[in-house]
């Protein structure tokens, strides 16, 4: 179960579709739906403790003895499980909980740790070609425009850069509100360093990422990040907000964090990465060492082990 419709281009849908492929490769019969219709199955996997609560409660009522796996998203971990009664019930009813990076465990009560598993999101090989331009330093922002992503932070930081900087920001993502669309249009009109290209097909987005010098991840709240894994696979270094959902993949010692929402600190970090070849090489090498985390074989093995536990 995923609240994201089939045609959605967001992280939840990408995760659901990838897992469906993995589970079929493991020999299982599987359906991906937005809501549980009461049909027979051996196990229910629900993305989102709050938004999938209706499906979770119906399944648990009809099948009190069958396995229920609840996958915790960023809004679950860092907001809903603290304040929302339905999300809290989902935690209790689950046979297993899944978090997508190691820091997710810290957000859960210790009594739930024994039934929680960490499954890092994998990235299959990407065939995108191209090289970054030599005449500018391209910084890519990928993600739909919504408050949790703090989507305009990189553009705002770019305004503070000195005239000598060659940084250009290219932003890929659909505005999820009229207010966000107006703001992005106005920013693109007034800020010569910022270019908003709206939504693109995934293959085209990967080509833009491959031709970028740097990915900027500015989220305020993140359960994990598909585009972070894609950046690691494509050897594109990252600057990131220091939040649990990104630290859980990049590690405490990653050298290119900035404080959440701090525009000036992000501007200084971008300029430092652009102007310091040694730091840039260090970031590339650091991300290269993270590639084993996002290998498909690792994710497939994790799912195989989890389902073996339940059967």
What does this structure look like?
The chain is an alpha/beta fold and 311 residues long. It has 2 domains: 11-122 and 295-310, no CATH class; 137-293, Rossmann fold (3-Layer(aba) Sandwich), CATH 3.40.50. It is built from 12 helices and 10 strands. The strands form 2 sheets. A 6-stranded parallel beta sheet has the order 7-6-5-8-9-10, with helices on both faces. It has a 4-stranded parallel beta sheet with strand order 1-2-3-4, with helices on one face. Helix 9 (244-250) links the parallel strand 9 and strand 10 (257-258). Helix 2 (53-62) packs across helix 4 and helix 3 crosses helix 4. The protein is elongated and about 65 Å long. The two termini are 20 Å apart. The model has no long low-confidence stretch (mean pLDDT 93).
Give the total of domains. Answer: 2
Number of strands: 10
- The number of helical runs is 12
Q: Which band does the percent of strand residues land in?
A: 5-15%
Poorly predicted segments? none
CATH architect. name of the largest domain: 3-Layer(aba) Sandwich
Rg (C-alpha, Å): 20 Å
Could you give the order of the helices and strands?
A: HEHEHHEEEHEHEHEHEHEHHH
CATH topology of the largest domain: Rossmann fold
Q: Please, what is the average pLDDT?
A: 93
According to CATH, the homologous superfamily of the largest domain is Glycogen Phosphorylase B
Alpha-beta classification: alpha/beta
Mind summarizing the main beta sheet?
Answer: 6 strands, parallel
